[in-house]
Structure formats: structure tokens, C-alpha cells
User: Fold Putative permease from Pseudobacter ginsenosidimutans.
Amino acid sequence: MFKTYLSTAFRSLWKNKVFTILNMLGLAIGISAALVIYLMVNWDFSFERAVPDHQRIYRVVSNFTSAEDKFYNSGVNVPLVNAIPGNISGIEEAAPYRQLSDMLKVTVLRDNGQRDIYKNQEGFIYTYPSYFKILPQQWVNGTPDASLNTPNQVVLNTASADKYFPGIPYDQLTGKQLYLEDTVTVTVSGVVKVREDRTDFNFIGFVSYSTLAKPNMQPHDWLEWDNTSDNTQILLKLPEGTSSASIAQQVTDLFRRNYTRDVKSSNDQFYSLQPLTDVHFDARYPNFNQRMGNRPTLYGLLAIAGFLLLLGCINFINLTTAQSSTRAKEIGIRKTMGSSKRQLITQFMGETLLLTLIATILSCILAPLVLKLFSDFIPAGIRFPNTGDPNIWIFLAALVLVVSFLSGIYPALVLSGFRPIQVLKNNTATDNGHTRRTILRKTLTVSQFVVAQVFIIATLMVAKQVKFALNKDIGMRKDAIVFIRTPWGESNPMKREQLADRLRAIPEIANVAIGGHPPSSRSIWTSTINYKDGQKDLEASIDIKVGDSNYIHVYGLQLIAGRNIRKSDTLSEMLINQTYANILGFKNPEEAIGRNLSWDNRLVPIAGVLKDFNQKTLHEAIRPLVISNEGNRLNTMHLLLHPQNATGTAWKNALAKAGQEFRSVYPELEYKADFFDESLANAYDNEQKTSRLLFWAAGLAVLISCLGLLGLVTFTTLQRTKEIGVRKVLGASVTQIVSLLSKDIIALVAIALLIAVPIAWIGLHQWLQQFAYRAAISWWLFILTGGITIIIALITLSFQTIRAALSDPVKSLRNE
Assistant:
């Protein structure tokens, strides 16, 4: 019996090649999309899931509130981090850690006296042995308890051990030394395997935290309770049943006992515990610039996969029922010969299962090509096939069964329900059930185009918002600016001045400033600043930028009151923005000039007021900000280039010459120059990738919808073959017949647009709420979408309608 079903299924699919190919394409597209999206979603949702007891592990994060705004930081101030382990009850383990510079220079002195220098090393942290009790790693040399319990010890992972000490067995690395920035000598005390699970905590070197406690090693913020940086973080592991909220409250209380804010201030600071599995997703608390997942995006991807699969199933139903009349006599004869309805349903479901299996095999062949196509959107570790993950094959098996059932059950019930007498009398087209099936088929077609049009509208709107973000006037110059980082905490600041002077001598460079991060960047530094004038006593959390007197000139920041800050090696004066001036209560910016701000136990005068500019992405509103001239934090060269020349070589020459000067001053460092406008564009990388993904999703949805549309018009023309013949005999033109056959279909597309518009508007309005500054949802997006889909529908219809209109009426009427 099975052999008969199988051979009949193959024979039926082969006989109807065109419909088989169309069905297979529709299902293969949907299954390919679902497979790739499953790989992406499964990748992100598996982060930190392999960590033992991950549900009991948390990261302490900082939350700030003011009358104007809320903002967040994944770090904790250093004194609080140091105080938590010994002052909070109910903690099983606590592991503070602090990131070293991501431009770290590591030097290895070989036995033969050779010095090997490794530049721009990322992934080193200071931490305690407890780190490995919270995030266990397999040890190949040493133990957690003995490896980080004294100053100047370092544990390497196997990748960094192979890099710094190639060819040396891991058990022989104990006692080997590394030199970090030529200032810290550390001795290897252990080696751990590289973590193979998916994690954001992929550090390569672990230096004992007690190294920082030495007087000559204590960082500038070692005792500053009001200075929060995401460089310093802490992980906690709680006992079973312990409330994370109660621990968070203890941490907040500990902070408030040691740092008393002004009672008149509207600002507040408190702490919360972020679950370990949320670290990969919560963009409010970034994790050392690692790629982060986005739950709404992942759920959106799942919705896209579901819709594309649904479209493939609808397409299958439309095409299968459209050719029902061609199989009616076959079904009538089978029933006359004794086939039961159950046997017919089994036969048709078997055909669907076979077709779905073939489509799935085709999808597996296409999956690596799709992954390569979206390589800049998909994490590098995702691959297919992945024999190490059996869940993929379970997912595919489940997908085949679900798609086969959804696609095949309705056509199987319809085809098996034909009555033999009516079928053999050629009356299948006139029964009442046909009318109901036509209504259902049209409803499914409208549903397909609703999904396709929602995707198109979303694609256009996301692209519009990205263009708005990249082109909006953010209050500063964006083009022709390059920044080059020098070592953080440079012991000889004159080297930076020397480099700046050499850069200014390059003819292609118009100006050079020494500062910290660019005025607009994702890097966060906030601090509490007080203002007192006898009447007001205002404390606020303020964003901090640092730069010399050329900083505002390079970026074109506009002074609206006062003057620029003067060059100084120490903090002597500040610039503030309009927003901060308004918070301080100055209606006229000139009133702020000369007033003193209290910061870090120092009174610092306000030298000038700057016009507001966006110091972060357009996701966030402009916050109060100061620009200080504190010399020991100036570690980045900001270069303003002259306009590009006609041959397009001026900037290339400028960067080449700048590289030569950089290497002459810092021969041990790797030269890297970044364009400011590119860094701004990278801040919207997620939106740009979303736009591209939606573009492809919209294209696939339209393609599948057009296949379904082709099925509907094929069914319509088959049912109206004799009507078309009669109309042609009576003098109807080709244009009139094409119009007759097309108008009902175009009406369905128009109905779909009316349904899609409010759905898309609601979804886009919600999506745009994440931006403080956003483009408007324009009416022309909906008109353009309608025009695009109608044109595509007409092109699709033309293949069948023109063919039907041009057919010989004699052939269609010969049986009458």
C-alpha cells in the first residue's frame, strides 16, 4: 500500500510539473527563511545557558534618575565594588572585575633576550579567584584558589597562551612573565581552556585584582563614590531561594551610607541585579562593546519566519485547489473503484509530505548560501549544517510535519470530498461548495498581500528612519574628521603634545585637537556635579567629555555665551551645554559664565555655554553635559582634514603621513585611524541591518504572494475558459478580456492594502518610540506600497491573462 501511495504521489507531481515547481518554490523559500532565522534566534537565546546555576547568577548594574531623564550603566563605582563582598549578607560568591585598556600592549621577554610585542590586546581583566567559581572554566594548569590570590599573577586562556608562548606546554608556563604597558609585570599562575559555550564573558587574560590595591597601581577612581564607569563591574551568585531584589536593596543602602546626596536634589542613584542570561540582551547595560542580542528583534524574526511559512502554506493551498478541476475525474474514478475518503486523504497528505520533504532538502542546500548572503548580519559562529547540534534536525523534522499538515489538510479534505456522480457528469464547478472555496481562496490571497505590504511599508519606514538618523543635523560637523587613540594613562604627556605638533605640520590636516571620546559616541562617563550659589543647591548626574581648546573647533561646536576653555594640564574650567544651563535655572546663557561648579571636591568655573548637540545616538534625548580640559584624560587625537581634492587622494595621503608620525612617537603601538562619520553610522548598525533584513523578507513575501496570485488567476481563467471564448466570438478585444480577468484580482490587492495600512502604522509607531528623535510616518509610504504591489500583481497576472485572452475561442468552445 505504501509503495502504491508513493508511486502515485511521484506520478501526480511529475504530471503537474508547473504547479509542483511553484509549490516547491513557495515552501522552500518559507522553510529556508525559517531555518536561517531559527539558527539566529537559537544562537542568541543560548548565551550563558551552559553556565551551571546560571539562574542564580547576576550582574550588579547602576541606575540613575533625575527630573529630566533616566539613564543606566553596566558598571559600579570602584569603592562600592570593593565593599560589596564583605558588607552584603546572603551572597554565595562575589566576583569584582575591571577591564584593562583595549589598546593594551603586552610584551614577552624570551629566554634569548628577544622582546616580542603584541599591540592592541583586548580581553584582559583584573579579578578574583571567585570569578571562576561563578563562571567556571576548565583548568589545564593551576587551580582557581591558588592562581589569583596574590598581586601580579595572571591566568591565560589556551588561545592567549599559545599566542604569547608558542610551542611551550601549558604545564610549563607557570612562572613565565608578561609585561603589561611596560608598567606592570605579571607572572603566569594558571591556564584555562577557551570557553566553547556562547558567552559575552570571553576574556583572554585574568590578572589578580589585588594588583590594583598597590598604592602606585590604584586607578584615579579608586576612592570616588560618585564616579561610575562600565570598566568596573561585579558578578554575584546567590544561594537558592534568595531574593535578588533584597540583595539589590542592600547594595543601594550600602552606597547611600557612604555617599550622601543633597536632600534638595531630584537626582537619585540605585542598583539592581541583572540576571546573567539578560546580559546579552539588555542594551541599557552594554557589556564591553560585545555584540548584543535584541529580544524584540528576535521575536520579530520569529514572526517573519512564521509569516513566510504561512505564506508558503497558503500558496500551496491556492495552487492545489486551483488545479482541483484537473484531478476531479481521477478522484471520481478512484471513488467508483472503491477508494474511501480516508485513503484519498492519506494519498493527498502523502503527496504534500513528499513535496515538503523535497522543499526541505532544497532549503538545506540553500541555507549555507543564505548564511553567506547575510554574513554581516549573522554572528560568525553560526553555520549549517552543524552536526554538533541535534536540535537543528529535530527542528527540521518538526517543521516538515507541521508544514505538511497545514499545507495539505485543507486541499486533501476538499479533493477527497468530490462526489463521483457529479464529477463524472462534469458538475464540480457548479456546486455550492465551489463558491465557498473561491471565497476562502480569495481571503487567503488577501492575507498573503497584507503580510507582503506590511513588510514593504516597514522596509520603507525603517530605511527612512536610518536615513534621517544619518543625515540629521546633530549640532556638530561630521565629515572629514578622523580620530586616533594614544595609550590611556600615558606617563609622559609631552609625547601626545609632540605627536599633535607633528600632525599639525601635515599640509592636508586643517586642525588637531587632543581630547577624550568624540562629542557624540556610545562611550559613557557620568559624574555627580553640584551647583551652589547661596540660593540654589542643585546636584545632578552629568555626562562628561574632555578636550583641549581646539576640541570644539574641530567638531564645529557652537558657543552661544562666554568663551572657549583654555589649554591646561589640570582641570581649571568647563564648558556646559544649553540643557545643563537650563537645569541650573539660567534663562540667559550669559548668566552662567563665571559661576562655579563643584566636582570631585574642586570648584571649577564655567567658561562658556555651548549650543546643544546630540552627544549620543538619536535613541536618546540630549542630556546635561560638560566639557572639561582635564589634561590627564586626553588620550585621543582628533584630526580635521582639509576638503578632499579632485583626484580623491588628499585624505589618503593625510592618513598615511599621520601614520608615519604616530609610529615615530609610539613605535610599539599599532596605528589605527577611524572616521567620525563612520563611527556615527556604526551606531545605527542594528537599524541598517534590520532594514536590509526587512528588504529581503518583503521581497520573499511578495514572491510567495505572487505565486499564490498566479494560482488564483490560473484557477479563474480555467473556470472562465468558455466565457472568454464566447466574449471573443462576440467581439471582445484582448484588452477588454485582460481587464475583465484582472480587475477582481487588483481589487483584492487594494483590499489587502486597506488592511495592511493600520497594522503597519501601529507597528511602526511602536517601533519608533525607541528613538527620541524620529522621522514622521509619511502618507506616501502607503501610496508607494500600493503602487508597487499593484504593478507587481499586474505583471504576475499578465502571464496568464494575456495568454487566456489570446487563446483560440474555437478550442474552448468545441465541447459545447
The longest helix spans residues 432-471. The radius of gyration is 34 Å. The longest strand covers residues 537-546.
